[in-house]
């Protein structure tokens, strides 16, 4: 081989090294990690994705495929996921699958933020208009409701708060589209007009990058592609790469359960009533332990959710009123006010109109009725206990029949008895004998006056 041939061979070897082509030694192919979000975007979803991306980086994965099938979700959780994707050193391919799935609302933003956006045939994305914060169907205080469309008013007016939210969301998704080189105009249209697209049209409009029938088809299309992740150039070698599925673990499932608004409300109710019963009957332990755990879990869930703190205050005030009704002779006035306060607080508790995050009215009514019945039972027990004859204190001592345990030496009119677990000194008008049965007729300080009792009256 002449000198020119050696130079050509050396140049080929160097070029192969630079572009990552194997030159005789097989290179280790890094794995592909698969995460799945198939529900509402929630605090549990955000925790799962963020931890999954960190774990993928620790495992030195070359790609994370985020399977998406969601109707949308909370803005705070969505933004947490997007921040993690943008900062991830491992590229993320969001894949709307299987057929029939969707990436609506928050899912559209996540798709736009990903390094790769892909869809399966028969899926759709869009409808990314932010849901207005506040009570469902109610106008914002100080802002009139939207005016109807007419000749004099060709465009319906929107309230200031909603307009701010829409503008903010449009700017956010527009920035993501520019970052990833995707269709900016349609992204803004999805926010302002809530439009949607099926997979094939999304591919034609450059809203997504790929349409693939399944995960294997997507990985075949991605093989050899260059991406920029966290400022670093990355080339994918997905053909034949090991696929690792990280399904939601017990922590994600537990967080998903307790952060459901209805479950959080029930946990808080169980916690408050558990502590209440522990305070009423100290030493029972079980209600106190169970109540403390449930209350902490409920409060933890509420701090992760978009709650209206006025609603929380009304719920606590209502419970306090219902508890007070069991001890105060108000003839139901405080208790009724507590029920009204609880119901109103539960209705306005969730400060969002996102589907799946409202508390069903039947559950609110059921909890209110259960609380009312529980407190009515307590009040009834308290009334019966008040009418029952006292068996402690002076009322319990006077009339008691007991036996003389000892007689004072040199003074047969004084002796000792055992009553209510205590030794009492007694005084009688007649001489006493040890073992003699006597009846208490009066108490003077620490001295009991007694008289002899016949054997027939020992049970009195």
From TrEMBL:
The keyword ATP-binding does not apply. Keywords: Membrane, Transmembrane, Transmembrane helix. The chain crosses the membrane at residues 254-276, 307-324, 331-350, 356-379. GO terms for cellular component: membrane. Residues 129-163 are annotated as: Disordered. It is found in: Membrane. This is Nodulation efficiency protein NfeD. SUPFAM superfamilies: ClpP/crotonase, NfeD domain-like. Residues 263-378 form the NfeD integral membrane domain. Residues 32-131 form the NfeD1b N-terminal domain. Residues 398-450 form the NfeD-like C-terminal domain. Its main location: membrane. Residues 138-147 have a biased composition (Pro residues). The keyword Secreted does not apply.
């Amino acid at each position: 081989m002449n000198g020119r041939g050696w130079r050509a061979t050396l140049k080929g070897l160097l070029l192969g090294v630079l572009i990552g082509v194997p030159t005789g030694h097989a290179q280790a192919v890094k794995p592909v990690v698969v995460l799945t979000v198939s529900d509402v975007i929630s605090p549990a979803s955000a925790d799962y994705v963020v931890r999954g991306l960190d774990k993928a980086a620790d495992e030195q994965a070359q790609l994370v495929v985020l399977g998406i099938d969601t109707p949308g979700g909370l803005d705070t959780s969505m933004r947490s996921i997007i921040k993690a994707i943008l900062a991830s050193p491992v590229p993320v391919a969001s894949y709307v699958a299987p057929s029939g799935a969707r990436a609506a609302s928050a899912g559209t933003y996540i798709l736009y933020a990903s390094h790769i956006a892909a869809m399966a045939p028969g899926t759709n994305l869009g409808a990314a208009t932010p849901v207005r914060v506040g009570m469902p169907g109610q106008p914002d205080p100080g802002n009139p409701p939207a005016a109807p469309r007419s000749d004099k008013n060709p465009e319906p007016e929107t309230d200031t708060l909603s307009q701010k939210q829409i503008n903010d969301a449009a700017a956010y998704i527009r920035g993501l589209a520019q970052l990833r080189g995707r269709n900016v105009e349609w992204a803004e249209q999805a926010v302002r007009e809530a439009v949607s697209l099926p997979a094939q049209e999304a591919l034609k409009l450059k809203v997504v990058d790929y349409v693939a029938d399944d995960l294997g088809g997507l990985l075949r299309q991605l093989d050899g592609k260059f991406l920029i992740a966290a400022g670093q150039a990355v080339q994918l070698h997905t053909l034949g790469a090991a696929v690792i599925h990280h399904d939601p673990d017990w922590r994600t499932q537990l967080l998903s359960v307790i952060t459901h608004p209805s479950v959080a409300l029930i946990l808080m109710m169980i916690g408050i009533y558990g502590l209440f019963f522990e305070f009423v009957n100290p030493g029972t332990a079980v209600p106190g332990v169970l109540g403390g755990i449930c209350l902490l879990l409920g409060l933890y869930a509420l701090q992760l959710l978009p709650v209206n703190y006025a609603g929380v205050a009304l719920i606590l005030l209502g419970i306090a009123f219902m508890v007070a009704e069991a001890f105060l002779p108000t003839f139901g006035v405080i208790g009724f006010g507590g029920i009204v306060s609880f119901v109103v607080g539960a209705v306005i508790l969730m400060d969002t109109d996102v589907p799946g995050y409202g508390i069903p009215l039947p559950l609110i009514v059921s909890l209110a009725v259960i609380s009312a019945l529980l407190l009515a039972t307590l009040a009834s027990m308290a009334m019966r206990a008040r009418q029952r004859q006292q068996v402690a204190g002076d009322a319990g001592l006077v009339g008691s029949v007991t036996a003389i345990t000892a007689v004072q030496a040199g003074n047969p009119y004084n002796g000792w008895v055992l009553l209510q677990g205590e030794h009492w000194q007694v005084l009688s008008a007649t001489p006493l004998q040890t073992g003699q049965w006597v009846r208490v007729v009066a108490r003077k300080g620490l001295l009991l006056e007694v008289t002899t009792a016949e054997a027939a009256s020992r049970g009195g």
